[in-house]
Amino acid sequence: MKVWNATREVWLALHVEVADRFVRRLVGLLGRRSLPPEHGLLITRCDSIHTIGMCFPIDVVFVDQDARVVTVIESLRPFRVVFPIRRAIAVLELPVGTIQRTRTGVGDELHFLA
Q: Which pTM was predicted?
């Protein structure tokens, strides 16, 4: 899957894995040493995350049912917890610097493309 920020007219990620099953959502990025540029993980049915056990920071984008950004978190370090975000139904985890590079912000419209 690919993720396009239609508001800013820029790709957020060209290689996105989808975590849409319980175990995959639970594991997330655990066990990895990094997240390569232009890669990401979309966790469905999710309004909160943690980075407990992770080895690297990530950028995080929470989206609502209309694929609009409701919250962004830049450089979320390991061993942190993000409590539930109102209206969020999915979370996109990205390499650090993606939010800044793409100027992604609250209200942006994302397109998830196969």
A: 0.95
